[in-house]
Design goal:
The chain has 239 residues and is an alpha/beta fold. The protein is 34% helix and 27% strand. The protein has helices at 45-55, 76-87, 90-105, 122-132, 175-187, 220-237, and strands at 3-12, 15-24, 31-37, 60-63, 110-120, 139-143, 161-167, 192-197, 210-211, 216-217. The two termini are 22 Å apart. 44% of the residues are buried.
Length: 239
């Protein structure tokens, strides 16, 4: 097995973006693709490592860039300044996401009929919004994502399978938010799962998360459990 990576340039609304594709170069032909939507800082080392992790399973992993080529937040203020304009304009965010899905579908290594979108934190919200649009993807997965409905997709039916991995002690998503999210998915006719982990806060998959006051703490047990469940979810989506 040889994991190859290459940058993928694309544009939307006059702006340039750079995603990263990873795949097993020892295997020819098209394969299912898993798109990874980044957390609030932007496309970075965590998302890029996940592309390789997924490529090792036989998929094409693609790290999405939503902020612009080379744009990455380093401080809380910078990250908020990058995320907030998109989080507050969900129709525009959704359009940007749907654009990059079409870019990935056209890559020679990708089976355009087998696409899953996943994401972390803000990226989890992005993955869920892809499903909310009714997009033709096999599934979406949110890891410690935000659940708030966008307000512009209420009448849509969700055809993608949905799974959300959630820390029950996440201060950014309260139990009432989880209940509201489940009701939203049910109303949209979705095939959905919410996996909630006790004693677990926000950002539980990120080994560098260690700020209990902010609510972001790595939890290896929850991270490992969610990874194993996600692999089963991918098997189901791509069966």
């Amino acid at each position: 097995m040889t994991i190859a990576t290459r940058p993928v340039d694309y544009t939307y609304d006059g702006h340039a973006y750079e995603g990263l594709l990873a795949f097993d170069d020892s295997v020819s032909g098209k394969r299912p693709a898993v798109l990874i939507s980044h957390a609030w800082a932007g496309r970075g080392a965590v998302e890029e490592e996940w592309t390789k992790r997924l490529a090792a399973l036989g998929y094409a992993g693609f790290a999405i860039d939503l902020y612009g080529k080379g744009v990455y937040g380093k401080t809380t203020a910078e990250c908020q300044a990058l995320m907030n304009p998109l989080a507050s304009n969900r129709p525009y965010l959704q359009a940007r996401l749907l654009n990059v899905i079409e870019v990935v579908k056209k890559l020679p290594e990708v089976d355009a009929n087998k696409i899953v979108v996943m994401g972390f934190c803000f990226g989890g919200l992005c993955a869920l919004d892809v499903a909310r649009t009714g997009a033709d993807v096999k599934g979406v997965a949110s890891f410690h994502g935000l659940f708030g409905a966008p307000g512009n997709t209420k009448e849509n039916k969700i055809t993608a399978k949905v799974i959300a991995f959630h820390g029950w002690d996440d201060p950014m998503v309260k139990p009432d938010d989880v209940k509201a999210f489940g009701l939203e998915l049910t109303d949209a006719g979705a095939d959905w799962q919410i996996c909630a982990y006790g004693g677990t806060m926000h950002a539980f998959t990120n080994p560098k998360a260690n700020d209990p006051a902010f609510g972001t703490v790595y939890n290896k047990r929850a991270a490992d459990r969610s990874w194993e469940s996600f692999k089963l979810f991918l098997n189901e989506c791509f069966a």
